[in-house]
Amino acid sequence: MKLVIDANIPAADACFSHFGKLTRVPGREINAAHLKHADALIVRSITQVNDKLLADSSVRFIGTCTIGTDHIDQAVLAQRDITFASAPGCNAEAVVDYVLSSLLTLAERDGWALGERTVGIVGVGNVGSRLQARLTAMGVATLACDPPRAEAAPGQAFHSLDALIERCDVLCLHMPLTREGPHATYQLFNAQRIDELAPGSVLLNAGRGDCVDGLALRSRLAGKGDISAVLDVWEEEPDIDASLRDMVSLATPHIAGHSLDGKLRGTWMIQQALARDCDQPSDLTFADICPSPALASLHLQDALPPEDALRLCMRAVYDVRRDHDALQRQTQHHGMRKGFDDYRANYPLRREFATLNVQLSGEAVALEVILRGAGFDVSSN
Predict the structure, then answer these.
(1) 261 labeled part of a ligand binding site
(2) Which residues are bridge partners to 378 per DSSP?
(3) Which of this chain's residues are annotated to bind substrate (predicted)?
(4) What average pLDDT score do residues 74-79 get?
């Protein structure tokens, strides 16, 4: 069996070498010639899998080690009778870590408290639902908007997008990209909606770049300059708008979900799917491929303001400012396309909040609820 695999997928040998010969190719460089005699293709989000790529292919299985699937033309796969698998939820926890790190960084910079804000979550799937659960556990007020889920479960507490824009201080976007239909998300945040954002609002997009009209956002930031934006996803990646990059409060190169844990979980989920497709039982567990963290525990003994404690623990694991600074540095030194992609391809090791055990004693025991709510493993005595 011949497998073509994105060169940046971790633990490829451990997960796939027993299936056959592995050919590693950088994700943006995978082309039809690589697949001519291949049996399986394993990708991440930057490889566009369509009829052109599969024109002369013998591929029978395609897996993407990602939550998102809008880079896969599933209609073409169905026509060709190709088995398809994705990894829903694999890096959802990492994206939530990114959101919390970003919001607490902005709160510190601009002098407001997250606990006093109302956060609107647009798209309540794997990421949005986890974000809402963590914020609620931390005592932060939330409102959710997800029209497809509202139709499917009319009894649940969903709100309209207009209501979120009117009532929320922070808007976090986690919806998939859909270009057609009654709930299309393409440029859902258009010029009108961006103009309706109240002064002081924060717009954070860690979903899909094309869900926000970048020109309209740039115009609001350059004109009134009275809102803040955090962008991890962009239109025209990797050739993103340099002016918009320089105007937003935090700019990162589509790495919100790039924790080691999330990547490994995605690889393992696709390995399991391929094993099922090949009717080859697999006893490989996620624990088999996931290493112990370099920083396993942290001990707090004295009382700290809750959000200071959160920032301390979060930055011990992940600091979004590193990725913001790196995007600026890499794109200035190497150009936009190369700098954007090179940083993603050589992304520094990052773990998830849940890998850190926070030990509390003395007055710090009062922090247990908020730290546990944020996603840390907490113990107290």
Answers:
(1) no
(2) 358
(3) 45, 66
(4) 96
Pick the closest to residue 303 from 352, 374, 356, 370 (CA basis): 370
232 labelled binding-site residue: yes
Flag whether 20 is marked binding.
no
Whether pLDDT at 367 is above 80: yes
Among 44, 149, 208, 218, the active-site one is 208
Rounded to two decimals, the pTM is 0.90
169 is an annotated ligand-binding site residue: no
Terminal Cα-to-Cα distance of the chain (whole angstroms): 54
Q: Active site includes 237?
A: yes
Residues spanned by CATH 3.40.50.720 within the chain?
A: 2-86+259-289, 92-251
Active site residue 18: no
Count the helix, strand and coil residues of the chain and give each as a percent rounded to the nearest 5.
45, 15, 40
Predicted confidence band of residue 68 (pLDDT cuts 50, 70, 90): confident
Res. 166: pLDDT tops 90: yes
146 annotated to bind ligand: yes
Task: Give me the catalytic one of 237, 265, 351, 372.
Answer: 237
Rg (CA), the chain: 21
pLDDT at position 70? 87
Q: What is the DSSP string of 14-59?
A: HHHGGGSEEEEE-GGG--HHHHTT-SEEEE-TTS-BSTTTTTT---
What top-level class would CATH report for the domain 2-86+259-289? alpha beta
- The CATH class that applies to domain 297-380 reads alpha beta
Q: Three-state SS for 167?
A: helix
CATH topology of domain 92-251: Rossmann fold (3.40.50)
Catalytic residue among 134, 254, 324, 351: 254
Q: Is 193 a catalytic residue?
A: no
